[in-house]
Amino acid sequence: MCGRFTLAPPEPTLRELIGPADWRARQTPRWNIAPGQDVLAVTLGEDGGRRVEALRWGFPAAGRPAPLVNVRAETAAIRSVFRSALVERRCILPADAFYEWQGKGGQPYRVAVADGRLFGLAAIRAEAGGFAILTREATPSLAGIHHRMPVMLEREAWRTWLGDDEAALAGDVPEPPSDLVAHPVSRRVNSVLNDDPACAEPVAPEERQMTLW
Prior knowledge:
Radius of gyration: 16 Å
CATH architecture: Alpha-Beta Complex
Shape: globular
Order of helices and strands: EHEEEEEHHEEEEEEEHHE
């Protein structure tokens, strides 16, 4: 799953990643973005250009007591509540890392690309507002932390995702970067009240450290 992520690059770096866009929201460094919060998102405007706006993390769904945080990419296209969003309302969440927890209530890890480059998290928007992040089966290197992970989009995949990506309708999603790394972080990240660089700093693991290669 994906319940937290980070976006803390200098604004020029973020603008370079996104490219020309209609900016309708400001970027501020975030080290512990959580469900229920407003998030910087890239959408496709009516003119076909990119738009940067603030969207609320949470996909309202009938019969659910709370908005959905994640949606499985494998079944989004065949579930009526998500299919129209997958066809018409895709968006991308710029990110520089995400967090996963090893087991229920276990050690949190920060997962990023080895060279620190930015990427996007694939998401879909609800018609009434709000979004959910798509998830996929974790790569072998991450499966020891959690069996699911967010769908990650490298820069070259953004145009396809925001446009008419027929593969997504069949449940196919881009492969994540091959050079992912992870390190344990403090349990401070468990609280949404903590949103500072200390959330992302490496700490000594409570058990064995996870090594990716």
